[in-house]
From TrEMBL:
This is Aldehyde dehydrogenase domain-containing protein. GO terms for molecular function: oxidoreductase activity, acting on the aldehyde or oxo group of donors, NAD or NADP as acceptor. It comes from Cupriavidus lacunae. It comes from the Bacteria. InterPro entries: Ald_DH/histidinol_DH, Ald_DH_C, Ald_DH_N. Keywords: Oxidoreductase.
Length: 78
């Protein structure tokens, strides 16, 4: 019978326990409970926050002694 129905979830031999299950989606045919609801109604937007102190300056000229030391170190370990 379960294969012939369209539903978001099914409770067998009970009527209330399904609503208290936070680990399962709830909301009819759509999953709008907990993480499922958050994902359904959210638009994912990656955000990159560059740290105030970073090594990106080492990649752009003029190269200094710190860059030269890093290159020597990387060459030594590869």
């Amino acid at each position: 019978m379960l294969e012939q129905t369209v539903s978001g979830g099914v409770t067998i031999n009970d009527c209330i326990w399904r609503f208290g299950q936070e680990s399962q989606p709830f909301g009819g045919v759509g999953a709008y409970h907990g993480e499922w609801g958050f994902r359904a109604f959210s638009k994912e937007k990656p955000v990159f926050l560059q740290a105030p102190v970073n090594g990106i300056g080492l990649l752009h000229p003029p190269y200094g002694k710190t860059f030269e030391r890093m290159v020597r170190l990387l060459r030594a370990i590869t």
